[in-house]
Amino acid sequence: MRNLERMHSYEGLRVLWTGWTLQGVYTVENYQFQHVLHVIGIFFAINIITPAMFVGQLFFVENFKDLLGIITMGLCVVICGYKYLIVLMKRRKLVRIRVIMEQLDLRPTTESQRDYMANVCKRCNRLAWIVISCYFVVNTLFEVSAALSHRQNLVFPVWVPYDWRNSAFLYWMTWSYQVLAQCNFCVQQTANDVTGPIYLSLLNTHLRVIMGRIARLTNDPKKSDWENCKELIGCIEDHRLIMDVFDILQGTVSYIIFLQFIGTALVCSMNILLYFLYPLSTAEILTIMLFLVAEIFQILPCCYFSNEFMSSTDEFVDAIYSSDWTDQGPQYKKLMIIFMEMTQQTKVIIAGKVIPVTLATFVSAIAQFIFCVQQAANDVTGPIYLSVLTTHLRCIMGRIENLRHDPKKTDLENCKDLIDCIEDHRLIMDVFEILQGTVSYTILFQFIGTACVFSMNILLYFLYTLSMTEVLIILLFLVAEIVEILPCCYFSNEFMSSTDEFVTAIYSTDWTDQGPEFKKLMIIFMEMTQQTKVIIAGKIIPVTLATFVSLFFVESFKELLGNLTMGLCLIICGYKYLIFLMMRRHLVRIRETWERLDVRPTTKLQREHMESICKRCNRLATLMFSSYMTVNALFVIHAGFSHRERLAFPVWVPYDWSNSAVLYWITWMYQGIAQFFFCVQQAGNDVTGPIFLYILKTHLKIIMGRIENISPDPNKSDWENCQELIDCIEDHRLIMDVFDVLQGTVSYTILFQFIGTAIVFCMNILLYFLYTLSLTEVLILMLFLFAEIVEILPCCYFSNEFMSSTDEFVTAIYSTDWTGQNPKFKKLMIIFMEMTQETKVIIAGKIIPVTLATFVSLFYVESFKELLSNLTMGLCLIICGYKYVIILLMRRHLVRIRDVLEKLDVRPTTESQRDYMERICKRCNTLAWIVFICYIVVNTLFELNAALSHRQNLVFPVWVPYDWTKSATLYWITWLYQVIAQFVFCVQQAANDSTGPVYLYILNTHLRIIMGRIENLKPDPNKSDLENCKEFTDCVEDHRLIMNIFDILQGTVSYTIFLQFIGTALVFCMNILLYFLYSLSLTEVLTIMLFLVAEILQILPCCYFSNKFMSSTDDFVNAIYSSDWTGQGPKFKSLLITFMEMTQQTKVIVAGKIIPVTLATFVSVSRIVVDLFHFKIARFKDLRTNDTFFGKPTCLVDLPLDLISRI
């Protein structure tokens, strides 16, 4: 009869282990020979040969598309094999689970529990059948499709060591092998995928059964204390068995799930790549979509059942505590306390000891997948369109440059190709206009998103002490956000550059021999294409590399910051309101709980205290609402008296309110009403948490007072003396229930408040430092920031008060008069103290503890002096290396310049011009030597200083994988390496810094020589018109050669100069920060000053010679015009007009296609430096001269917070 009443949980594994048995995974303890042979046969024939066939096919793919398809399927096969191998290795542990489950099945259970277990077993088997059916259906489709392809395709494209296309026998043999292999893979994959879900489902059911047994435990007065404990001991033992099974699954199934996660990620990535890179048919798109959905949902069962088991373990302590333990004996209560202690830890499968396998993980995976697809599409739309458009424009430029005069054709026929190019250029401009009206808005949203995310992460960095991992994650995230807008800016900049170069391309064509019709068309075309074309994001921000760089050297967007600040406040207010609407029922239930607490016996003093607290809460709400209303009323009234010049807040409306009094006052009135409701909402949002926590804390204090007043009464029985304590325990439970409701509702509104405060704070601080504000604007900003920070104070304060009360609760219990109480009272007290030891605090969004410590942490940052010093030197070396790499990559282009210069050198020149060129060459070599010697001298000083430091210092502080301080040999080896390395860096740096100036100096000299030749041109009456044009035509050709060299430099040297600018900016910022944050010695100050001067002067040669070349290009038109052209023939004059038209454009090196390299740029940098020093020295003069604050040495980071705020 007992056998009929037991559970049969192992029945749920019947289908699963049937599949494993087919794959050679047997339930025996030790394998015999036939078992080993079965496993080897399956593993070799299926899990080695099939992946090898897929790998072999990788070497015979025709394109990247086929490669992605094969890798996708191959990865699935390989990962399936790895999961099968893990199960083989952990087989014995999985087999032992059956023994444990049979022990659990023998425990006494109710009929409903046995029925529930039977249903769970059926569901487990049904799950296994569903999964294997899905795999078989999909694979059958592929197999049937291959069989009906007339021997054109295999089931999957794989490599085989023979040609299956030429033999029907070989084809069908290969097809049969693939069918058998895929059937085995279906069984393997099914067993892999359902092992975790089925085991966890059965385990969760057993845990639920134990929870039901514990809940049914009651005190039987007819039994002894030990007999009453017997059933609890049985539950504890069964719980141990379940945890043993869980540990086995943690060490086996978790790795299978981890591999599944990896496989899902890789397969999704490759399919997404396939989708975006290639034009696919509808069938291919549907196949990919189904494949992606299948891969994502493949991890759903694991996540679901693991989450269910985790929830059950979380509820287990509550099940124990909810049992009828108050009437049990002391032995029972001791066991219960120990059992509760042991079961408080949440149990969840950790995939590969990395990823928690929960529904949260699954949902985040889906959400991230969808966001990735959307984000990828959003981010690449603009760049791809612009890249294609730029390519078409470049093709037209190439066609124009290849236009040649054909004497056999008429003038109209020679113009035909040019007319086609003009028509194509029009089509490109039409496409550009479409992009301007569509893509520009997506780019604008990207800019706004990047700004918000950047602000929040910067605030996170400065507000909290983060670990190195967290700092790296934030830095990578910021870099990713900024780089996310780079493709848009880059390709838009490329298109803009192409439109700028288009005129040059027209000029570069062989137009000198063309007819007058061609030249007229060319001049009109040149006139029409002189306008620069650039995408304007939202018709506001030009999308260029200059805009991208302006993220670091910010230009004006004062109004944008102001509007974003107010807009974000309103949006966050709306989100908080929405949260309260969704959680309304939970908050309403709190009233019932408080009514139950209010009817408890209390003293007159406690009642009066509660009344005063209620008055304070109402006063707080009224004060908050009044504050909001006052501020908003000021804005509304100010707008009302502005004579219709402005609204209360600058907003967009779909009409022009400035031209109509009616429309203005309607808008004004709407804003007034809307702001009133926002004030009500915001006040409600902000005081809900503080008020609930204040009242909750008061109730907790009342219970503490009741507990402290409990004293033993000899006239009462033991049970009567315990009754008041039991009531306090029950009331404490009610308070904790209310706290849990608040934790799940109010915590999210507080999180939004924190986020809103952070963003608004960042934007206002940015506004303050970027713009010169009036005194009124500064005061408004200060009040606004103060209000935003103080807005989170009530939450933090009252949450901190409640936390302190929960900490004091154990002390209050211990302070009661328990020494004279009976043993039953003492046992209850011990259990109660055990349950109330945990500190309770609101966790905003389950992330940020809402305490005064969190509030105060907003005002503290730590020192990083050494980090700044090391970063400064490290950046110099890194940027030097990057410039060297750029020169290496562009070496061929620079080598070609020599051939062009040699062609220019053989042109006829005067003796004075040759002497001038020789002097220029000597100056260039002298410049290179001076730069090199400066670097060597500076580094030698550091090297000598290190050598004379008695082995205390290296040349520069660096990390080495040994301790150089304890060995003279290691020290001198390190010192020698640094000396050699610094010498190489000096050579590199000198070459990097002098390349641009030297090339530009020589180029400028050649340009000046051509200008001299043009000015010396005179008409010779003895020569024909064509012969008089010959020298002028040579000058035009030489000018083209110089412009070709300039284009090479623009594409090569400009990037090294750009890196030099970046390096100078970063080093300058770090040294300035070092100077103003720390008290430095005179030597350190002088070193920093010299270093900054050297860094700034380092860009001077580039700017100077680039400016010289720019001036020469500006003078070139005047040189042409100054030639003796009045006596020349019509052909000469026609050439001269066209040449003047082409040379009117100023040529200047643009560093990284962003910053013009001119003396004006250098002076602006120098002016910023001087102004900054004047400003800071004036503000810090007293502090830096006295170097003390209230009688003790100080630096900026040691000053009081209010003084820093004033500074």
From TrEMBL:
Superkingdom classification of source: Eukaryota
UniProt record, GO biological process: signal transduction
A GO CC term attached to the entry: plasma membrane
Membrane topology summary: Multi-pass membrane protein
Positions of transmembrane segments: 36-61, 67-88, 127-148, 253-278, 285-307, 348-371, 443-465, 471-491, 534-554, 560-581, 620-641, 661-680, 750-772, 778-798, 841-861, 867-889, 927-948, 968-986, 1057-1078, 1085-1107, 1148-1170
PANTHER family for the chain: ODORANT RECEPTOR, ODORANT RECEPTOR 19A-RELATED
Protein name: Odorant receptor
Organism the protein comes from: Hermetia illucens (Black soldier fly)
